[in-house]
Amino acid sequence: MRILLADDHALVRRGVRLILDREPDLEVVAEAGDGAEAIEAARSQEIDLAVLDIAMPRLTGLQATRELVALKPGLRILMLTMHDNEQYLFQALKAGACGYVLKSVADRDLVAACRAAMRNEPFLYPGAVTALIRNYLERVRHGEEDPDQFLTPREEEVLKLVAEGHSSKEIAEILFISVKTVHRHRANLLHKLGLHDRLELTRYAIRAGLIEP
């Protein structure tokens, strides 16, 4: 299995690579320091599995997952994270990841997760399974809808940049759009999510896994 490994910390990548490369059926063929680099690597190399950190600059692991799923529908994706966080878990699965592995137990779980991906099987640590069941039951009980599913990729990009503290002018320059378009996206975000200001957008972006607390 040819693996792409993406994490913004070189030391973490080195450690994870050591875990994977000692297995005869696993090989890290590409590394990336953020989500955007991961997408470029996936375009230029043949890979079977992407192992992505959730919190990365430019594009998060969650955003990269959505783009990779669209780019290479057969690609399997594992999220490797320090966050034992239900919201991150739900976002990862919704984005298209087939597994969720905690860095704290990567030496125990990561190889098993990779092999599960090879078999086209999901991999979740026990606490994640419990969280999924509890969340599902609560949602059924309350009849709730998740507003995330209604955000467009562009709205999500704007949300991440707003939450990171960029001005409308800076966001326009980063995304190559007009300031007026930024204002429109921001207004749409506030309306769709039922929020009122930048602070509430920032809190929402943290819960959605777009930025770190």
- Report the span from N to C terminus: 34 Å
* β-strand number: 6
Shape: globular
Biggest sheet strand line-up: 2-1-3-4-5-6
Number of helices: 10
Parts with pLDDT < 50 across at least 5 consecutive residues = none
Radius of gyration, in angstroms, nearest whole number: 18 Å
Output mean pLDDT: 88
* Class inferred from helices and paired strands: alpha/beta
DSSP helix fraction = 40-55%
Strand content: 5-15%
Topology pattern, helix = H, strand = E: EHEHEHEHEHEHHHHH
Reported for the largest beta sheet, the result is: 6 strands, parallel
Could you characterize what this model shows?
This protein has 213 residues and is of the alpha/beta class. It is globular and about 55 Å long. Strands 2-1-3-4-5-6 form a six-stranded parallel sheet, sandwiched between helices. The protein has ten helices and six strands; from the N terminus they run βαβαβαβαβαβααααα. 55% of the residues lie in helices and 13% in strands. It starts with a strand and ends in a 6-residue tail after the last helix. Helix 2 packs parallel to helix 3 and helix 8 crosses helix 9. Helix 4 links the parallel strand 4 and strand 5.
